[in-house]
Write a structure and sequence with these properties.
The complex is a heterodimer of chains A (337) and B (457).
Chain A lengths: L1 H39 L6 H21 L10 H30 L3 H23 L12 E3 L1 H8 L7 E2 H23 L1 H11 L1 H6 L4 H26 L6 H16 L4 H19 L3 H7 L18 H15 L11
Antiparallel strand pairs in A: 1-2
Helix pairs in contact in A: 1-6, 1-9, 1-10, 1-11, 1-12, 2-3, 2-4, 2-9, 2-10, 3-4, 3-9, 6-7, 6-9, 7-9, 10-11, 10-13, 11-13
Chain B lengths: L5 H21 L1 H28 L6 H16 L4 H31 L3 H32 L18 H20 L4 H21 L1 H4 L15 H6 L1 H10 L1 H5 L4 H44 L1 H11 L1 H6 L4 H27 L9 H15 L4 H29 L8 H8 L4 H16 L13
Helix pairs in contact in B: 1-2, 1-17, 2-12, 2-15, 2-16, 2-17, 3-6, 3-7, 3-15, 4-5, 6-15, 10-12, 16-17, 16-19, 17-19
Classes of the chains: A mainly alpha (337), B mainly alpha (457).
């Protein structure tokens, strides 16, 4: 029985908790991508950089607050700076729409041109970030690092295996629940949300019904800005902030959005967790888990690892390809590609 | 054969004069280094342009195809490592044979089992256990190979042939990968094809990064043999010394003192050998570029090229006229990728080393796409022009930015924080320039600087 509990703790500690927090970050990112896709109808390659931008502004203000000795006690100061980061990100989104994307929307350009344009925007934001903050890795989490340390847990329960709970993980999960609830409530219950869904479903019909497209687009960018900034900051808080990492994050985010069914907000969230868990589960070495579960005569000798951790990144894409082959519209019927 | 318009001649003149200008300002060596990379970029751009410009098939996997070309350069030119083959050759052979058996088995099941659910179950069972068995042989073999002399070897080595053959092999490698990708992904809507190709190219690069028995992975392969002479050999070759003496005879004759004259001559020989090497590369690359340019143009003007344009402009109509759109898309995707692969092999040839971790999408996929868009998709001369101009801008952005920052902050103290910060960030301004160039071109000249010619034939 003890062995069984130990093995469960191993799974919790190394797969489930990291999976949920990474999955939450991906889900928030994928939700942003899916919003742009559903309303503005293009694949936004700049999304990773928008996330990075939000995180950067948050970091700058975190530093400012730290220098003024303003803090939140056991919570990271970044939470205090987050609203400012969100506002800056929203402004960035709206500026990039006004000066860049709007023109092509009025021209009714094909999606692929808009995707190219978003690459241009990606380069510009990327440059701005690097010019302002450089390319160094930045750790900006402060406050209490662990809610529960592995050792504490061992003492508490008397088990062999520890369960560590980082505060950044808990914060990620809580904020994600909050934000997702709010987003779905907004989409389902408010008038603006309903008009957004109508616009996404059938643009012409929505226009005929008197929905103001500019207003819908404006609201979309606000939501995208909030989601992107929060996702970027949480990712930076959890791992550590590195400007170049966000370009690589775009691909798993796209994978999440497409796997879940692009254009479907609920699908994007599910896709995020699917991608995160498969990345972690396929590359985790299960040896410890089996050692606890199996009698010692048939204990595994190897690491019991499906793929080496080097391929973490490749996993999300393999899943994307498989999903596209078997079910091109994603798990929750999004738009057929 | 083909006639250039006046503005096209202008573009060619601008390209040539840029290099002469740099030659006089920054030295001929710098100018030739930039020229070599420009030519390689132009070839990559032509490859992308063929699939995107002719047929509208998007290819964001440039980085992966370049890496395949680079792998070809290693596998063709590196001398074989006999020991590695001894310890691991058999295991690898067995696992490869098993893999073939597995693929045939899956194909056979697909053929005879008709019910869809049974087919999925059977296939996944066979693949799962097949991979378990293959892994056993494979991991043993690769482990043994990677253990042999890991500091300098630890991989299989290559064939030991002249590296120039790898330019063709690189094209074939890239074409093979492109065929598989095309079979899987073509048929998706274009922006999703972009994402999928981008992702698969990442997978290709991560395989090259981590399969050390094949490519030495992140340990890099260095010291690949050159197709052109080495500087040190040139400096000791009589004919080269005579050539330099002859070319600079008037300058040398003005120096009366014999010792001084020898000193000057030695410097000239050292400088000259570097320039000679780069020039030989440039000539080789130029030949490849012109060959590809010639055939790309021929193809564009041929009935096949006309069909491609028809498919691009109206897929449904082309399909109704009996053209096999899916097949033609696959063909053109493979051809484009093959040309990119050639460029990848040339890139590694020029550097003399293969660094899998150096393949990053920003530098090797997105910049190439900026070249295509800026140059003018659907026009081969435009592609070359785009490759030249963008690479030139990419390199010269740093000195230009330094100059501009120094001019703008001329009133500030040299120790001013803002000034120092800006000067430290000079390398990042090139991304800003690239983004702005792309946005401006897409806004004000969406067909590119040298647009496709509309032909009525």
């Amino acid at each position: 029985m003890i062995d069984f509990l130990n093995s469960i703790i191993v799974l919790l500690n190394f797969i489930i908790i990291p999976g949920i927090s990474y999955g939450s970050q991906l889900a928030l990112g994928a939700l942003g991508v899916t919003f742009v896709y559903a309303i503005l109808r293009f694949a936004n390659f700049a999304h990773g950089e928008i996330m990075s931008f939000g995180a950067m502004i948050t970091i700058l203000f975190t530093w400012f607050f730290q220098s003024q000795n303003i803090g939140l006690g056991i919570l990271p100061t970044a939470l205090l700076a987050l609203p400012i980061g969100i506002i800056a990100t929203i402004i960035l989104c709206i500026i990039s729409d006004k000066f860049v994307f709007q023109y092509y929307r009025y021209q009714k350009s094909v999606p692929v041109v808009l995707a190219m344009v978003s690459i241009g925007v990606m380069f510009v934001i990327n440059a701005i970030i690097r010019i302002i903050i450089g390319t160094e890795t930045i750790k900006f989490s402060d406050g209490q690092k662990f809610i529960m340390k592995a050792k504490q847990f061992k003492v508490m329960t008397g088990l062999n295996e520890g369960l560590a709970l980082k505060s950044s993980q808990v914060i990620t999960i809580l904020i994600t629940i909050l934000l997702l609830t709010f987003t779905f409530w907004f989409l389902q219950k408010t008038k603006t949300g309903k008009s957004m869904r109508a616009f996404s479903d059938n643009e012409d019909l929505a226009l005929l019904s008197g929905i103001n497209p500019d207003r819908v687009v404006f609201t979309t960018w606000i939501i995208v800005g909030v989601l992107a900034c929060v996702a970027g900051t949480l990712y930076g808080l959890d791992k550590s902030y590195k400007p170049i990492i966000y370009l690589n994050l775009v691909l798993p985010i796209f994978a999440s959005a497409i796997v879940g069914g692009i254009g479907s907000p609920f699908g994007a969230v599910v896709g995020g967790y699917v991608i995160a868990f498969s990345e972690i589960m396929v590359t985790y070495a299960y040896k410890k888990f089996f050692v606890y579960l199996l009698p010692s005569s048939i204990e595994p000798t190897g690491l019991v690892q499906l793929l080496s951790t080097d391929y973490k990144f490749a996993v999300s894409f393999s899943i994307l390809v498989i999903v596209l082959l078997i079910r091109p519209s994603g798990i929750f019927k999004g738009k057929v590609l | 054969m083909m006639k250039f318009e006046r503005y096209e001649w202008l573009a060619i003149t601008i390209m040539i004069s840029l290099f002469i200008f740099v030659g006089f300002i920054q030295g001929w060596s710098v100018s030739l280094v930039i020229l070599n990379m420009c030519i390689i970029s132009a070839i990559m751009t032509m490859g992308v342009n063929i699939s995107w410009g002719y047929a509208g098939v998007i290819n964001f996997g440039v980085m992966g195809f370049l890496a395949m070309g680079g792998l070809a350069a290693v596998l063709v030119s590196y001398p074989p490592i006999a020991e590695s083959w001894q310890v691991g050759g058999r295991g690898l052979g067995i696992s490869f044979a098993l893999l073939v058996v597995l693929v045939i088995a899956v194909m056979y099941i697909n053929k005879i089992v008709i019910q869809k659910r049974n087919r999925y179950i059977l296939n996944s069972l066979i693949i799962f256990f097949g991979i378990l068995i293959i892994r056993h042989f494979y991991l043993n073999a690769t482990h043994n190979i990677e253990d042999i002399n890991p500091a300098i070897a630890g991989f299989l080595g290559g064939l030991g042939l002249p590296i120039i053959f790898s330019w063709i092999v690189g094209g074939l490698f890239a074409a093979g990968v492109a065929f598989v990708i095309g079979k899987v992904a073509l048929g998706l809507r274009s922006d999703y094809l972009a994402i999928v190709t981008l992702g698969i190219s990442e997978i290709v690069v991560s395989v090259l990064k981590h399969e050390e028995w094949l490519s030495r992975g992140v340990k890099n392969v260095i010291g690949l043999k050159r197709p052109v002479p080495y500087e040190i050999d040139l400096q000791n070759a009589d004919w080269f010394i005579n050539l330099v003496t002859y070319l600079n005879s008037s300058k040398l004759n003005n120096i009366i003192d014999l010792g001084d004259r020898q000193q000057v001559l030695n410097n000239l020989i050292i400088d000259g050998s570097g320039i000679f090497v780069k020039l030989s590369y440039a000539i080789l690359f130029l030949i490849v570029m012109l060959i590809i340019f010639y055939f790309a143009n021929k193809a564009q003007l041929s009935p096949w090229g006309r069909m491609m344009r028809a498919i691009r402009d109206n897929e449904t109509a082309a399909n109704a006229m009996g053209k096999d759109v899916v097949k033609q898309h696959l063909i053109i995707f493979v051809i484009g990728a093959a040309i990119v692969g050639v460029a990848g092999a040339m890139l590694v040839t020029l550097d003399g080393l293969f660094t899998p971790s150096g393949y990053r999408p920003l530098r090797f996929t997105f910049i190439i796409w900026i070249m295509v868009i800026v140059g003018g998709s659907g026009n081969n001369l435009g592609a070359i022009f785009g490759g030249f101009v963008i690479w030139f801008a990419w390199i010269e952005a740093a000195p230009l930015t330094t100059f501009i920052i120094n001019q703008l902050t001329v009133g500030l103290e040299p120790t001013n924080v803002l000034k120092l910060h800006l000067l430290n960030s000079v390398p990042y301004f090139r991304y800003l320039f690239m983004g702005l160039i792309l946005l401006l071109i897409l806004r004000y000249r969406p067909k590119g600087i040298i647009p496709e010619k509309v032909r009525h034939s």
